[in-house]
Prior knowledge:
The structure is a homodimer of 458-residue chains.
Chain A: H1 17-36, E1 40-41, E2 47-49, H2 50-53, H3 58-64, E3 67-68, H4 80-84, H5 88-95, E4 98-100, H6 105-114, E5 123-132, E6 144-153, H7 159-175, E7 179-185, H8 186-195, H9 202-209, H10 219-228, H11 233-243, H12 248-254, H13 259-275, E8 283-286, E9 300-306, E10 320-327, E11 341-346, H14 348-357, E12 371-375, H15 378-393, E13 398-400, H16 407-417, E14 421-425, H17 427-432, E15 435-439, E16 445-448, H18 450-457
Parallel strand pairs in A: 1-5, 7-8, 12-13, 12-14
Antiparallel strand pairs in A: 2-4, 3-4, 5-6, 6-11, 7-9, 9-10, 10-11, 14-15, 15-16
Helix pairs in contact in A: 1-7, 1-14, 7-13, 8-13, 9-10
Amino acid sequence: MKAVKASIPKGTRDFGPDQVRKRHFIFHTIRNVFVRYGFQPIETPTMENLTTLTGKYGDEGDQLLFKVLNNGDFLRKADKEALSSLDASALLPSIAKRGLRYDLTVPLARFVVQHQNDIAFPFKRYQIQPVWRADRPQKGRYQEFYQCDADVIGTESLLCEAELVQIYDEVFAKLGIQVNIRLNHRKILEGVAEYCGYPDQTMDISMAIDKLDKFKDGWVGVCRELEERGIPAEAHSKIQEALQADSIETLKSILADSTVGQEGIAELETIGRFLDGYEIQNTLQHDFFLARGLSYYTGCILEVAVNTEASGQKEIRMGSMGGGGRYADLTHMFGLKNMSGVGVSFGAERIYDVMEDLDLFPHDPSAVSQLLLIAMDEESHFYAFHLLRQIRAAGVNAELYPEPVKMKRQMKYANTRQFPYVGIIGEREREEQKIALKNMTTGEQSSLSMEEVIQTMM
Amino acid sequence: MKAVKASIPKGTRDFGPDQVRKRHFIFHTIRNVFVRYGFQPIETPTMENLTTLTGKYGDEGDQLLFKVLNNGDFLRKADKEALSSLDASALLPSIAKRGLRYDLTVPLARFVVQHQNDIAFPFKRYQIQPVWRADRPQKGRYQEFYQCDADVIGTESLLCEAELVQIYDEVFAKLGIQVNIRLNHRKILEGVAEYCGYPDQTMDISMAIDKLDKFKDGWVGVCRELEERGIPAEAHSKIQEALQADSIETLKSILADSTVGQEGIAELETIGRFLDGYEIQNTLQHDFFLARGLSYYTGCILEVAVNTEASGQKEIRMGSMGGGGRYADLTHMFGLKNMSGVGVSFGAERIYDVMEDLDLFPHDPSAVSQLLLIAMDEESHFYAFHLLRQIRAAGVNAELYPEPVKMKRQMKYANTRQFPYVGIIGEREREEQKIALKNMTTGEQSSLSMEEVIQTMM
Lengths: 458, 458
């Protein structure tokens, strides 16, 4: 067999031990908070039917779906006309019926409809699984990455929104990242559209203000975009006046004539009432400019970003660390109507990068080996193996170098793997029933009994 | 948008909360033992290059690989000749360059070669990830399932084999499944082939004896198979004599003239020496009939199955719960020679089924909600939400029904979700600063302060 070059597809990643442990630390932290708040785990298959996925993420999303070729002779049932005209998109449905999970929301909707008779509603579920997108690989953007979602399905109670704010607050506090949690409401944006005289153009206004951070010239760029979308200059100042309102009270009077605007404000106030007295560990604010993925959300909108001031790291790249909101009709695409849902997502990959940048990952001795035993001769090797069993039984993660080779080679291994302690066993140690324990940080070495070694590791 | 039927591809599964928790209990148990023994985690991408996967699992394996269609206009670079002759296998390389991970061994080999300069050898790695195989779906066989592997790469020390036996022993003891761990050695089978006079037919002999359990007529069937493979009757009794040896001593004298056979025996004896004095919690035996996947393994072979007698469950379906062995040259397929490896795999799906059958999953209160608060009116609902925060802060997984609807509906939810406790809060409870706590198992109800409720949950 000819040797194959060892490589992986572009946009995918291998994770070594240190990375896996850190990634799991993040997942574990998020999961624990989800569970504390009563969210229950589900897992869905990597492959979904393409009929489930297609058309849910817009045309661009459909392009980014990974499609899995049908098994066996996939050309047997292929669309012959599409084949001969080399029409890939026309051919697709006849040769690929499955695709890879693109997000966790559509699978959730599918799951809820498929298992609706087994689910107690309101259904609080969390899901931590990878998703795949055929995005052009670039720095920080991968074709396989994890999403961590929590959603509540089947209730319109604003208690859920309040809990999701608390969840963001608790998770980031536990991770040690200072964040700013921002809240807005789709109905407020609808109210602003009414106020400026273009009630049917909420979407255009939202798309424009969503780019505020992206435009180099800020609000001037937004105005240009509004103009292009058919909203003239005289409306711009009214939009700006409303969105810049310094408090919910001010906004309430600005949007006094908009019923829908008042509804949105009232909902934010109710969320505020739930959170009244809650001692937030991060910062929480209303941001009427917030308009993420609005076509999707129908109620409250949430977004979380690193609070660069509080974290004392001005240079840290901003970017959203998570977001979410309420969608009135999650499951209609699978034929189940009137299932209101609200959810948030954590951007685990960005969280990882920020924690690396800020050196926030804790050292967890229970996840790595504490002790490497080194044997000086074959007899000591067997002897050390029997000691090792008792050391492990006491709860210590420990190893014995698999061969009693030269001490230098074994010590080199100990250094590379960064064992905090090395226990050396030769003829003398065997006779004295001791272990020569070396502290690899200080270099100190002492002759200890096995019990004393275990004690030192604890 | 037309509603799509909510369904998943054949051979795949959704996992609800209870299943996810149980599956993670298994993974968690296995992972903890791996870590105790010094194994380090890696994770590899779901998609590998097809050049990495193809040809590694035999022709049948190649058929069972899931192939991922290239993105965009996949027909643009398609092999036009293969297209016009409708030759699916000839077309494949030009339209699909990636496939889904089929096992964890080939990705490990690829990983070791690709990252060889960053790895400290011997490399003890574990990996717990799903794999995909386009097997015909049937009861108990899925197209997506988890593997849990531990391997040591870069040493020939038999200490590794001894540790893998201990790992099997500890994991199954922790899971509560009584198993029988069987050991054999490829060189013993080679010795038997020499002994019976057909030294070049180790493979044929192994394939035949591997079917001993599958043939209804047992040994008679094996003899028929041997005959078909060109090994005549006079050799059968010699094979049987050797394989049935009641001890390693007996086998040693039977294979006295086989150098390779003696080497295999000596290795099993060394493994025995490492395990000498180890108080095994299951059973461990030599089984010279054991011949799993022999083309792959070059040294020791291990297999684990439920010990039906010890588990007191005669009817439990047998089947392997895991297996492994040593392979002399794991990485040669990627151009790195002389890397000996040894590893074991846990069949998580079968372990799950056995644990369900034997009702072995423990109840873990930290994984589920302990308390549902129920509010009788809107004012109580806000009040309860504030209590909830403090109850959670004390470490209790708790929920508040999101709306203060009729008590009956809230209690129905509590029953369906099987909360052990329900805390009812109405006007009186608010005034008295109490919670009416109902024990859902006994039906008892008592009026308690929040602190007392927390105490009860602990």
